[in-house]
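quick one, four chains, predict together pls
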Amino acid sequence: MVSDKFFAIVAGVGPGTGRSVAIRFSEAYPVVLLARSPESYNNVVAEISKAGRKAIGITADATDESSITSAFETIKKELPDFKLAATIYNVRPNSRPSRKPFLELTLEDLDTSLNGNIRGLFNFAQSILPLLLGSVEHSPQPPTLIVTGATASIRGSAKWSVIAAGKSGQRILTQSLAREFGPLGVHVAHAVIDGGIDVPDATHYPRNDGTPDGRISPYAIAESYWYLHTQHKSAFTQELDLRPFIEHF
Amino acid sequence: MVSDKFFAIVAGVGPGTGRSVAIRFSEAYPVVLLARSPESYNNVVAEISKAGRKAIGITADATDESSITSAFETIKKELPDFKLAATIYNVRPNSRPSRKPFLELTLEDLDTSLNGNIRGLFNFAQSILPLLLGSVEHSPQPPTLIVTGATASIRGSAKWSVIAAGKSGQRILTQSLAREFGPLGVHVAHAVIDGGIDVPDATHYPRNDGTPDGRISPYAIAESYWYLHTQHKSAFTQELDLRPFIEHF
Amino acid sequence: MVSDKFFAIVAGVGPGTGRSVAIRFSEAYPVVLLARSPESYNNVVAEISKAGRKAIGITADATDESSITSAFETIKKELPDFKLAATIYNVRPNSRPSRKPFLELTLEDLDTSLNGNIRGLFNFAQSILPLLLGSVEHSPQPPTLIVTGATASIRGSAKWSVIAAGKSGQRILTQSLAREFGPLGVHVAHAVIDGGIDVPDATHYPRNDGTPDGRISPYAIAESYWYLHTQHKSAFTQELDLRPFIEHF
Amino acid sequence: MVSDKFFAIVAGVGPGTGRSVAIRFSEAYPVVLLARSPESYNNVVAEISKAGRKAIGITADATDESSITSAFETIKKELPDFKLAATIYNVRPNSRPSRKPFLELTLEDLDTSLNGNIRGLFNFAQSILPLLLGSVEHSPQPPTLIVTGATASIRGSAKWSVIAAGKSGQRILTQSLAREFGPLGVHVAHAVIDGGIDVPDATHYPRNDGTPDGRISPYAIAESYWYLHTQHKSAFTQELDLRPFIEHF
C-alpha cells in the first residue's frame, strides 16, 4: 500500500528562520521540529497547533548519532504511515564565537563549528536521504533537502576563520549531495543567507539596523525555501543567495 | 495622480523561454513582447489575447539604440498610464556559432555574441532602469530586471569562446547593476540556465534527450522568474541556477 | 631547418606593467612592443637597447584587424627566423571611464571597454595562437599567452559596469582558450591584478597611498609573468591573483 | 640580537609533494620534516643530508595538539637561534576513503577528512603563525604559509563528499588566514592541485596515465611553492591552480 501522506522535518528551530520555515511548511505537511532543547521549539509547536495544523517537537542533537537515531524512532511512532517530503537543515552550532582573531581561538571553537555545520549535516543526511529516496515516486513535490548557509559559506573573511571553515565545508558537502542525489530525483539545495535575520535576539548583526527591511525577514526565507521545494524537477536550483536590498556585497 | 497600473516587458520572445515567461507574467500584467521579427511574437500575442489577457508585440532590436528608443515610444502610446513592474532580458544573439574551434571563428562571430548579450542588455537597461526606479514606491512587487544566463556565463569551456565571452560579460554587468540599483529598490537578478530547453526546435542541445524532464521545461523557468519577481525586498536573490535533475554539472 | 631563436611580444606597453614585463622578458628573448602610439614604447625600447638587449616597437591597435595583420608582417621582416615563445596581452582600453553611475554611461563607454578587453584580445589571439602552436615542439619553455586581468574580471561592483563587462568577458575568453590550447601544449594564463600599480601616473588608484608596498610593483608583476612562462607543462597555472599584502579583499 | 638564521617546516612528507618541497626549500633553509611515522621522512632526510644540506625529521600528528606542542619543543632545541621563514601544510588525512556513495560512508570517514584537512591545519597554524609574525621584520622573503589543496577544495563532486567537505573547509580557513595575516606581513597562499601526482605509489589517480606529463611532477609543485615564497609583498598570490596541460577541467 502506497502512502499518500507526507511530512516535513525542520532541524534547528529557534525564534528566527527555523520558526518561519516550520510554520510555512506546516501549511502543507505535518512538521517535525528538532532542536537541542524543548524551549527552542515549544512555542512554535504551540503556534502551529493553535492554527489547527500538526507539529511535533523532538529534542535531538544532530551532531550525536544516537540522538538522531532515537529521534527517527520517535518520528516513526508518531507518524507511522507518513513519508518524508522535505527537510530543512538549519542547525546553528551550539555556541559560536563571534568574529575573533585567529590566535585567540581554541580547537574547541573550531570543533563547535565543524560539529554543528558539517558533522551534524552528515549525520542528519545519512538518516533522511534514504527516506527522501523512498518518496521520489509518490511525493507531491520532488523530495527536498535544503541547507541554510551564510556569507561565510563562500568567503573566508578575516577573523571569521572557524565559522567560515564550517560553513564552507557544509556548502561543498551539500553540493556533493546535490550531484549524487539529484539524478535519483532528490532536490538538494543550498541558500546563502547574506545578511542579518530580523529576530528580536539577533543583536549580533548590527548591520543595516534601523532601516526598514535592512534585515532579512525570516518569513521571506521561508517563502524561498517553500519555492525551492516546489520547483519542477526539470529545473532544480542548487544554490541561491538571499540578502536585503540595501546589503553591500 | 499615482498610477496603480503596471506592465511587464519581455525582450527576446521565441517559442521557448520567452513565450512561457510572457504567458506567466501576463497573468498579472499586460505584457510587451519584443523580438526582431513579428514571426517570433505573433503566435504568443495571439495565445495571450485568446486567454483574455493583454499582450502587445513590438518589433525591435535591443542592440540598436534607435530601435529601442522607438519601441519605448510605442509602449508609451499603447500603455499611456502604465508603469513598469518587471522586465526580462532573454535576448539570444541573432545567429550564434555553435561550439567551434577558436581559430575557425571570425570577429563577426564574436560581435554577434557581444551585441546580443552585452550591448543589447546595456541599451535595454539604460531605457528600463529609469522606469523601474519610477515604480519603486507603488509597484505591487519590487520592480524587477531578470537576465537569462547560461552555463557559459560562469565557465569558458573549450571551443565555446565567443559565447562564453558574451554571456560572462553579461552576467557581471548584471551583477554590477544589482549592486547599484538594489539599494535603490530595484531587484536585478540573473539566472544561470544550465541545460537544454525543451522546445521543439532545440535540436542543438542533444543532451539528456529521451529522458523525461531531461530538458528544462520553459514553464519551470517562467515560474522561477515569477518567483524572483515576487521576492520580498528584505530577501532578494541575485543569482540562481536552474538545471534538470539529471544534468551533470 | 628548425629555428632555435625565439622572441616575445608584449601588447600594451606604457610606463607600468607593460614596461616591466618587456624588460623582464628581454633578458631571455628579443621583445616586440606593441602600443597605439610610439610615445608609449619609445622610452622602453631605448631602455632595453641601452642594456644591450633587443627590442622592437611597433605602432598597432589590437582592436583593428588590419593593424594587427600589418604588425605581424613587420615582425616577420624584422625577426625572419624567430619563433614566438611568449606573448602578454596587457592592453588597456583607449580611454576608460572611471567609476560612474550606470545611467551616466554611454554605449561608447561600453564599446571602449569591449574593444580593448575582448575584441582586441580576440584579434590578437587569432594571430598569435598559430605561432605559439608552431613553437610547441622546440620552444625552451611551453609557449605562453598571459592576459592581464583586474578585480573587475571577477566582480561586478556598483558603478564599474562597463569595465566589469569587458574584463569579465576577457577572463572567460582566456579560460576558454586555456581549455582548448592547453592540451595542445600552449600555456594560457590569466592574472587578476587586485590593486593599484605603482607608476607615477597611476593617480586614479588612490588606495593604500602612502604605505610602502601599498601599490603593486610592476616589477613584481613581471616576475610573476616570467614565472608563469617557465612553469613545467605538467603543472600549468591557469589563474593567479596578485595584490599588495595590505589590500582588503 | 637579531637572528639572521631562518628555517622552513614541511608538514606532511611522503614520497610525492612533501619530499620535493622539502628538497627544494632545503636549498635555502634547514628544513624540518613532520610526518606521522619516521618511515615517511627518513629517506628524504637522508637524501637532503647526503646533498650536504640540513634536514630534521620529527614524528608528529598535526591533528593532535600535544604532538604539535612537543614537535615545536624539539624544533626549539634543534634549531635554537633560528626563526621560521616558511611552512608548507601538505598533510593528507590518515586514510582516506576513495570516491564512495554517501550512504556507504561513516562518520569516521568524515572525521578522518576533517581532522587531517581542517583540525590539523588549525593546530599547526596556531603554532606557526606567531613564529611567522616574529620573522616579518628580518626574513629574507615574506614569511610564508602555503597549504596544499585539491580539486575537491573548490568542487563537491558526486561521491567525493567527505573529502570535499574537508578540503573546502581547509581552503576557506586558509583564505581567512590570508586576509587576517597578510596585512601583518605574512604571506598565506593556497594551491589547488588539480590532477594526479607522478609518484610511484599514486596508483589511485589513474587519469592521464601513460601520457608524458599527464601527471603533475612533484618537482613542479615544489618550484611553484618556492616561487610563492619569494613573491614581493606588493604582489602576493593568495591562490593559484596547478594542473597538467592535458587535464580536462
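Chain D has one domain: 6-242.
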